[in-house]
Amino acid sequence: MVRSMTGYGKESITVDDSHIHVEVRSVNHRFLDISPKMPRNLLFMEERLKRKVQDKLARGRVDLFVTLEGKGLFERKVDVDWALLDQYMAKFTDIKDRYQLTGDVSIDMVSKLDDIFTIQEVEEHTDELQQALIEAVEQSLERLLVMREQEGARLVEDFQKRMVRMDEILLQLEEKRPVIVDEHRNKIRERIEEYTQEALDPDQSRVLQEVGLLAEKGDVTEELTRLQSHLSQFRVTLSEQEAIGRRLDFIVQEMHREVNTIGSKSNDAEVTQWVVSLKSEIEKMKEQVQNVE
Question: Which residues does the UniProt record annotate as the domain Endoribonuclease YicC-like C-terminal (predicted)?
Fold first, then answer.
């Protein structure tokens, strides 16, 4: 099945008073490039989530966004350093007695003391929330895959139309093939006559034999056969289940090479027009292939 490398999926899951939101977005890339973006307290899950992406995708740049609302995997708690506070209070009393000061120590004064209060993060429902996060990522990936497959189906439809058009042009080129060979032969004869300043004698069998051999080099049969073979390979590859983008890209490059050779062997206006049309279809296919996984 052909899959595009462009897709998007998202999922949200609630566990107790925590809300997990996951978004996965992918675009075309030569390799699989995963870029997770998540809160600091979830970084320990990064490699595990990357493996989930690797299990589902073969190519593409993938952005994985994770946001967490609520307590999350950790609950914050405030601790008081009672031993240190006791020392502060004792010193306040000593100062009061030593200098005969009046007044009481207020809560406002205590709140301004350094190092009395510390904030700690305590794990809360870690296993449950980790599982929920993994589930959200898996569901997001499934939705992304659906979009990539839908886009892949549209790419296949476009490829099929272009290959039908190429088949029609190749049929016309096959019918025109004898004309291309004759044109090449005549071009060689004209070139020889131009340099020798005289017409070739039909009895000059050796020269005519050489002309014939050179004319055969202008035959596009081999290029047409290979081009048909490349089209057949392209169709077969489209039906395979694995990642096929790189292979399709190679086949399209080979198609372009054969068409260039055909164009170089003929000066016929009609053939030139067909070659231009073939190149146009191949360029459009090459552009589309860049987005195939």
Answer: 174-293
